[in-house]
Design a protein that fits this description.
Layout: H1 9-40, H2 47-64, H3 68-93, H4 103-125, E1 141-144, E2 147-150, H5 151-173, H6 175-185, H7 187-192, H8 197-219, H9 229-244, H10 249-269, H11 276-288
Antiparallel strand pairs: 1-2
Helix pairs in contact: 1-5, 1-8, 1-9, 1-10, 2-3, 2-4, 2-8, 2-9, 3-8, 5-6, 6-8, 9-10, 10-11
Amino acid sequence: MDTGHTFTLAALGSQFFVGLSRAMILFVVTSGLSFVLGVLRVPNVAHGSLYMIGAFCAFSVSKLFGGGSTGFWLGLILSPLIVALVSLVAERVLFCHLYQREHLMLLLFTFALSLILGDLVKLVWGAEYRSIMAPPVLQGFVTVFGSSFPRYNLFLLLLGPLVAIGIWLFTNKTKLGKIAKAAAVDREMVGAVGINVSWVFAFAFVFGCFFAGLGGALVAPTGTIALGMDHNLIIEAFLIVTIGGLGNMWGAMAGSLIFGLTQSFGILFWPQFAIVFPYTAVVIVLLLRPKGMLKSVW
């Protein structure tokens, strides 16, 4: 296939690192969605809207504190907490009454909630495009194996594995994480030993949504913050969770890498049809592994 481009090793390396950094943002978001799916078995379509709220909150916090390093870091810390608070209200008021319903009803409910949250974002922030700058320490480029690579993308590459390790340590080494895993397997037994399953579910939902807000705050300096940024993201997130294995965090990491890298190399090799590459990869994975690459927790 002749695309009229000469692909140098430096160009390939640059696209590889760009794909990795994109995969890390996808992983941060999908890790939360995967956690909610694994514990609550709720296909939360509103996860994308919470991601969008996280991005807009990062903009507002950054602007409130005058931008620069202080505004960025405070936005990165406070935005996920604001999203977690919003998700706690939604869970206590709405979701806690619906866990025993069919998955289709939960899917429709979360879709309706995503529309409501989208309208609320429009009311609060308007329809204008927003943007924020990375702090000075994360601006500019570094040279990695002969390729120029944005410092901010390098920050994402470091943060993604830290999030993965943190979630793994929480779910496997803490009492609350083990209770959440037990509730995913047998919620009746967990309740029978005197644990308040309702609040375990509330925590699991808030914990997962926290990472949607974190992903939104992380993506804010990389592009435009706008209404509708949640639409493509939630489609990609569900595909990643599906090919990785429902509720499997390491599967979410593997799926994010596949999606991010195929998208990045697609832009390099055949930019007119770049969007086709990750979806083709999804089809191939599902043909070979219909239940996902790693074991589902369902």
